[in-house]
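Supplementary Data S3. Sequence and structure tokens for construct A.
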Amino acid sequence: MTRTITLYTKDYCPYCKAAKALLHRKGARFTNHEITGKPALRAEMIQRAGGLRTVPQIFIGGVHVGGYDALTRLDARGELDGLLGLVRTA
């Protein structure tokens, strides 16, 4: 069972692009909210992220993961697939 994944990004952000690329490699589908020039979406992101203002901000299954660094740490520890709801086969 896959979980809902939501990203808040800016179009010129290299970390945003890297986060989206990692999720694409995992085969994960996500909703991307491009916040450049969209103050209402930016305010939504800040509220959901507990006041954090940097991008990307990533939410998986309603849980705030954080940014790109947090996403890659989860992947390096082998925890990202489980959080994404992906089934890993041996």
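Construct B, processed identically:
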Amino acid sequence: MELFTWKMVSDPIYGFVYFNREIEEQIINSSLLQRLRYIMQLQTAHLVYPGAVHTRFQHSLGVMHLSGLVAEDLTWKLVSIYGREALEDYSPATLIEASRLAGLLHDVGHAAFGHSFEHSVLWRRTMPSELANHERIGLKLVELVLEDALIKLEEKYGLNGLTDVLKKLLKDNHDDSPLIRMYRWVIKDGLYPTDIVDFLRRDSYYAGTSEYGYISHERLYRNTYPLIEGGGFKPVLDRTGLGEFKQYMIAKTSMYEHVYYHSVCRAFDKILDTLLERLDEEYGLVERVLAISKGRIEDFLELTDVYVYSILLGKALREESETGRLARLMLIERKPEWRRVGGDYVLNGYRGPRFISEILKLIFNREWRSKVVSALTEELSRKLSGIGVTEEDVWVDVLDVSPVPKTLLYPGGENNTPGVVVYTGKILGRRIVVGQEINLLEGELPLAVIFRAYVKRGKYRVEAESIASKTIGDVLESLLRINMDEYRRSIEEAYKSATGIDYSRFKLTM
């Protein structure tokens, strides 16, 4: 944008990330952004993948960069297809800069250990609505720390409405105009938002698992067109980009299954869950969040991984308390008290509608999910009682793997119809023609629920492996009314139908 002068920093994902001196450099140098240097992007994953020590600061710069590219592409598509009036009363520079700033600021509400803090501290309490999650906390911090300065900057550089658009993009409001929803789609409300695209590429790079997180982001957004009709907005993916979208879904599924939900990472997360609960009692973690409502933010801003790790390391080295013991297990001995037993049982949507139904029920119905976990825990402890295992020695972990954002999958919100739809089509001149509407729940979505069993490390015996695997399968197939024998028979019948055909003349290696 001609309004600004630009600086750059090296980045392993994009080569260089550019930011403007006039506005973005001031935001980057604020306490809200600089504290993100001290919060790791992947909580405890570095204990399993030593390279995964990158930070939310790096990720925020990446999302800013990517959001700018996508927003600029979207803006000029809107102008070329619908004319300048499609931008309402905003200038292209305002919309693009607001998108860049929203990408930069989207994670400033994270506390120490990111999402683990939300699960272990915030969501165990009834928090005020404005502080219920990191996104809402972030918006409140932006209002308290940056809003006045941003209003002055938008006036200085003629970016009318910049602060207002930025706040709307950071909110989770579905009542905004199609234009605002369009730009929020870029960062967080779309099937392939810049937030997710960046963290998949960045996390896979630093974890050393690039084979899982590869995405050609440019091909995705270049092949997406904004369709405005009936007062609403639909992103239409050119059918030539459908293959890249499927690759994106595979990348997200693979990263969750193999990195974010790695069995040892989950065992460390369970220790961290207990530690954060104990630290809340001792250091008033919730009170630090609640103080934001009263305009006191310093105690919250202090809550970084560096700060909490310093406390935990001190306890690990000096205390014989239970907190000290758990801290030693995580930080020094690196031996979680829970050890996985048996293989993962993956309930995968590829197996058909019966499986999709049970997967969605497990994701949506927390009470039903708890009943399934209780049944598994009870039966596993009974089958493993011969080696001294009791119910207290068993932990059943249930993990959702969704290649699309959960906000789009859950009932409610902007559209309560069952299904996640991808609109595909072509652009002919200045006209977008929708072709196929693909409901991803009808076969394209690699949705899954993973069941995994752990026992206390001291109770682990190698003979428990086969017992646990069989028990999990038997209980789930009975409880969820899944007939795997029927599934296997259908495969056998397909092979029987080919009996007598000579396949040796075909090139089977193709």
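The mean pLDDT is 92. Strands lie at 6-11, 15-20, 224-229, 232-238, 338-348, 394-401, 421-428, 431-439, 448-456.
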